[in-house]
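worker-3 :: picked Class I SAM-dependent methyltransferase
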Amino acid sequence: MESHKADVSRYWSGRAHAYDEAQQKGERSQIEKELWKKAFSFLSHDDGTLVHRASNAKPALHTTDAKQAVGGNGTATGHNGDGTPAIRKNHGTTALHCTDATPDLRGSDDGKQALRVLDVGCGSGYLSRIVAGFGHNVVGLDSSPGMLREAESHHVRGLQTVLGDATCPPESLGKFDVIVSRYVMWTLEDPYSAVCAWKKMLDPQGSGIIAIADANWFPSGEGLEVDVDSEDGENAFIDTYGHGYAEQLPLATLDSPQPYLDIFQRAGLRAHLTWLPEIDELDLICGVSRGHMPRKRFLIRASVTA
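worker-3 :: tokens ->
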């Protein structure tokens, strides 16, 4: 499958602009951003959780069910009790290379501690921007030059982008307090080796946390024949992940997240899974982007065992 990596990189470069644009527009974009901030709020200084103790704490996202914010007509107004925007129904739509961006190396403006965070498979930088917004220094790693160009176009303070393989990040990047990813593990040909590599990049004096968000995107191969917005045409996904390739990826066609947990535990990490029902609810109310299917998202927090 080694020769296919170049095809995958080209696919994501071709998808980059449309993929990034879809995350920035429409009624759902700001609500979704707030929900993802909530999912990763253990990295926020405002969360009340000491980041260096976060490996022993369970994520708090599931404390509010989005259904409670939706009225009988499927429309919600105002805010949820935790301060996140309430969901409103949209009736109209259902090789190592570093950028010139300066990685702040900052303590945050209010003097609180800034962590060093690696976003593996950062894509267009969606999660990187959220984490950098918490006041941390983020390195976004991706094998797609097109995706990195989109990430760089946002000019985010504290974000540095690096071209490289998420499965084996360059050791020259150094150590990190936290490693994160979003919608990446399902794409990996060898996710166990990737997790082992990520574990080695954790600073032994740091938080020791790996946090990944994903879903069972194509259970039993369902949903693989989708059209997408891409510079390479609407069949780009099928041409890249079809013809048996997705079935060769260990996590792509599962119908349960348990194998994800097994990988972390096999790598010597203590793992805890939290479902993300509010984001799933947003899919049902606002619809999904072209080329996507409604799927139940989950967040896995893994920490180094003693």
